[in-house]
Amino acid sequence: VEDGEQTRTCQDEDCGETETETIPATGEHTYGDWVITTEATADNDGTREHTCSVCGYTETETFAYTSTDTEPDEPETPDTPDTPDEPENPDTPDTPDTPDEPENPDVTDDPNESSYMVGDVNLDGKVTAADARLALRAAAKIEDLEGDALLAADLDGNGNVTAAEARKILRVAAQIDTFTNDENE
After folding, report:
1. Using CA atoms, how far apart are residues 27 and 143, in angstroms rounded to an integer?
2. What does residue 94 show for φ and ψ, rounded to 5 degrees?
3. Residue 26 CB coordination number (10 Å)
4. What mean pLDDT comes out for the span 26-40?
5. How many CB atoms lie within 10 A of CB 63?
6. Looking at per-residue confidence, does 144 or 2 come out higher?
7. What count of other Cβ atoms lies within 10 Å of the Cβ of residue 36?
8. Which residues, listed in sequence order, are joined to residue 107 by a DSSP beta bridge?
9. β-strands 4-9, 58-63: how paired?
């Protein structure tokens, strides 16, 4: 790290004199957080950079794609209500936009008991990809779940939500898997 300098110029119209001051190097940069500039893929390395808050120097490095899953990551979805992915067809009769939702026998009508459906993390009465997203955010410690929402996401009942549980909720929402009795106990 090299010494820097700061130049000041007098603002008086008749003066205009400049003064340059040497700023001694501290020996270390003070970097901010890494910012990913190019995502890594299975085919290409990614790049990231961080910038020194003192001198403005930017360090860039490449990183390789790593994956612990055997399936591709799901794309990030905005925090908006679920909307249909395909435009409506005007030639079809008006029908509700709700697909057949997985049945869940664990829902109770007793107001004194907890009233949640396994996998229904947002407690809207159905298991959807939005529930899987909330569970995954909880597994990544981005979102805190409490009460019935935590109970609905914690499929194995150990008090923690994992990425595997979020994946299971997504598979049930997509109707390619079901919750079995051993996960609901």
Report:
1. 39
2. -70, 120
3. 13
4. 84
5. 14
6. 144
7. 11
8. none
9. unpaired
pLDDT at residue 65, as a whole number = 78
Whole-angstrom distance, CA of residue 118 vs CA of residue 153: 7
Rounded CA-CA distance 39/173 in Å is 28
pLDDT per residue as tens digits for the range 7-16: 888 888 888 8
Q: Using 50, 70 and 90 to split pLDDT, how confident is the model at 185?
A: very low
What CA–CA distances, in Å, run from 7 to 4, 10, 15, 18? 10, 10, 15, 7
Tell me the residue type at 168: K
What's the token pair of residue 52? 């020194």
Count of positions (residues) in the chain: 185
Token pair of 83 as six digits: 């909307």
Place of tokens 């697909």: 99
pLDDT of residue 91: 53
Tell me if 60 sits within 8 A of 50, measured CB to CB.
Answer: no
Two tokens at 127? 């298991």
